[in-house]
Structure formats: C-alpha cells, structure tokens
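Q: My hope is that you can spare some time for a protein that puzzles me. Underneath my words sits a plain record pairing an amino acid chain with its backbone structure tokens. Those tokens are not coordinates but codes from a learned vocabulary of shapes. Thank you; the sequence and its tokens follow:
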Amino acid sequence: MSIPAKSTLYAAAAAILFACPAAALSADRIDWATGPALQRRLGEPVDIFWANNPLRRAIENLCETRRVAVLIDRRVDPGMELDVSLNNAPLESALRQIARPLGLDTARLGDVFYIGPAVEVGRLTSVSTEFKEAVGRLPSAARLNFHRRGPFRWDDLAEPRSLIEQLARDNGLIIERLDLLPHDLWAAADLPPLSLADRLTLIAFQYDLTLRISSDGRRLELVPLPATASDASSEASRPAARPSREKPAAGPPADLDRLRIERLTVQEKPLGPVLEQLARRLNLDLRLDRRAIAAAGVSLDRRVSVKVENATIDELFGELLRGTGLDFRRRGRIVEISPAE
C-alpha cells in the first residue's frame, strides 16, 4: 500500500470523529471492553483480509465485533481504501499495522484507541501527560473533578465547540478562547467513560490546541499547541489569563454569508434527517415543500453522501442536493427546499 500525500490525510471531513457509530447510538449500545478486559482484547489474535475496504467501514466492523472503542482523528480521510491481509495478529498490533502504511499511527488514551496522522500521534501522549501533571498540582477537590470519569457521546452533526463548552459547564468550569475552535460538525459517537481531562484533551488536540488551567482549577483557556514538548509543559502550568469581558459568540455568526464550514462528510445518511440536523446546528429556518417533493417522486429517505471543505452555506446545500432532483433557495436564515425546475 502506498502512503497518501499529507494533503490527502488532512482533507478529511468534519464528520469523521467516530467510535463505531453504526450501532453506537442505538438502543443496544455496545458494552465496550475497559480496564483489564480491554487489555485482554488487545492481545487476542485476529485474522483480517480487506480488499478496497474504506477505512471507516473496516474499523467500524472490527471494533464492534471486538468491543474495542477506536476514535479516528478528524483530519483523517475515512474513505481511504485499505488492502490488508493479517493472520493471527494481536489486535493492538493489527491496528498499528493497519494505520502505519497509511501514514497514520495509534495511541491509547484511557480506554480508547486513537488513530491519527503519524506526525501528530506522538504528541497526544505528551500533551495529555503534561495537562494531567498540571491537574496534579491543583487543590484536591479540583483534582478529583478532572479525574472523574463520565460518558462521552454525542449525536450526528455535533459541534465540537458546543461539546467542550458543555463539558466545562457540567463540571462547574469556565472555559475561554472558544473562538479558537472553528465551526465544525462531527458524526455521532459513543465512547467508553473517560476522565474529564481525557475528554477535554481529545477534543482540543484535534485542532492543535491544548488547555491552560488556572491555579484553582476553575478556569480553562484553549491555547495553540506549542512547537515542542518543553514549551507545552510551560503552557500547561502557566496561570490562566484574566477573563475577557467579551464572551465569544455561541453558534454560527449572524452573517451566514461569511460563515464557512471547515469540513463535513456525510456518508450514506437519509437526506431528510440530514437537512433537519443541519438546520438545527446552523440555526436555520428549514422549509421543506413536502407535498411538491412527494409529487415529484423524490424521497427524503434516500441516502446521500457528500464531502465538503471550507464551504459556504450555499455550497454545502448545493453539494448535498446534487443529483437528488431537489433545489434550494436561501434568504438569510430561511432555506426553502423544493423540486428542481
């Protein structure tokens, strides 16, 4: 297998972050292996033969059957095709052998296996360790807050900015510089319980960010990852900046013409629910002419796939409706969907 160019790896769509989402948010949630059970699973041998198998689908099937949660970095293209033949390989070794020919690598954070660009994976462990060392210097009550394990799941088209803001709010924390997180949309995921420190790290790291923590552990600030590990240590332990008087705006900006979706992938999802979820996430007034759509013989249950990067709202809807027989008209926040003329 050839190693794709770096641009291929980083042209991945926003809705990539996942942990076996096909069944993750169903009524029958997967009972992920954790602790000693996970360690045993990772040592169990697997036989794999994949031919032109897309990365996401292949990993979904593997981790579901083995009950091992795997998270793929948002910067990795989930459609990369795999040609893999492994016989009697321990699962942990198999994941690494699958990743490395693609220019990727693996790391473990808590009970989650992470797959990301090889140049970044090595930093994840050090960034996580340095943040936890800063947590270790906090007063005991604050330390316990960051060590406390909790569920880590979200729905389709979730915004990472909202996820990290909710984590802070649920744990009595104030988080600053949310503006450093671009407007992005992720696919649904359901991970095993993780410490608050790990949950925060797994979101921030994928945008080349880490967290600076105040001496009392009540305030966090998103900061760009430093160039070296030694710089990271000093950033993590430095007191948080004085709170800004201006609170970052929540959600998309008022001027939708200036809003750009950094990355988004939709893979084989029903058109109607995708449109409705996008409208909710982007605070749009979606108006579906259902009678005309049905009369035109178009089903909103048809499955669509789309991949966009650095797209405007209009470009996103244009790509989503391409080939469906539908068209849209947008006036500010009002988006009308009807049969194409």
